[in-house]
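__Protein archive entry__

___
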Amino acid sequence: QVQLVESGGGLVQPGGSLKLSCAASGFAFSGSVMRWFRQAPGKERELVAFISAFGTMTKYADSVKGRFTISRDNDKNTVYLQMESLIPEDTAVYYCNADYAPSRWGKGTLVTVSS
């Protein structure tokens, strides 16, 4: 059974940093493209970042380019999102998602950027 468990969220001041983790199980993680999404209150879920199966290709939404870094550790079945220079507009619940099972979602992890 595919499981995705996000962690690492919290309250951070503007300009601060956080690193999110997503532990995956139940599928061949190293063969799957992984993505991070986020959903802000009252808004649609949006794609934040993408990483290829072996981590050789990454892409980012324009709103986070230069501030966020997606990475993965295929030995640990984990994908990460390093977030720097956070702004209030980054406040959202963050979710990871696997191409292997695109309809499966974890509970997400809440990131709140506020002074």
